[in-house]
Amino acid sequence: MAKYVALVDIRTSVQNAQDLVSTWGDIRLEFEEFGVELDGSFAVLGEYDFLLIFEAPDRDTAFKAGIAVERHGMDMQTMEIIPMADFAGLVED
After folding, report:
1. I need a surface site. Which of 6, 45, 55, 76 has the fewest CB within 10 A?
2. DSSP the chain
3. Which domain of life is it from (predicted)?
4. Do the beta carbons of residue 50 and residue 11 sit within 8 Å?
5. Do 53 and 39 meet the contact criterion of CB atoms below 8 Å apart?
């Protein structure tokens, strides 16, 4: 499976942090339905609110994950990532 990192920004104001936690639970369930494995989720200080690291079987499934997050009132910028060892192999060719 390909690995992705996503920067997430909340579009609406959050009145209750517990609601936000519940939303992430819903998103996690949707990811599982698509066959997406969430490797990590982090709150971020700075321009974005959250960072996600996940694996998806293919690019189309990664798009579905992004759409699922956006349905919950968040913007998601997704990027495919590869391990440095794989990158080094590409550079050597």
Report:
1. 45
2. -EEEEEEEEE-S--S-HHHHHHHHHHHHHHHHHHT-EEEEEEE-SSS-SEEEEEEESSHHHHHHHHHHHHHTTEEEEEEEE--HHHHHHHHH-
3. Archaea
4. no
5. yes
CATH number at residue 18: 3.30.70.100
Q: How many domains does the chain have?
A: 1
Greatest Cα pair distance, the chain, in angstroms, is 52
Amino acid code (one letter) for 61: T
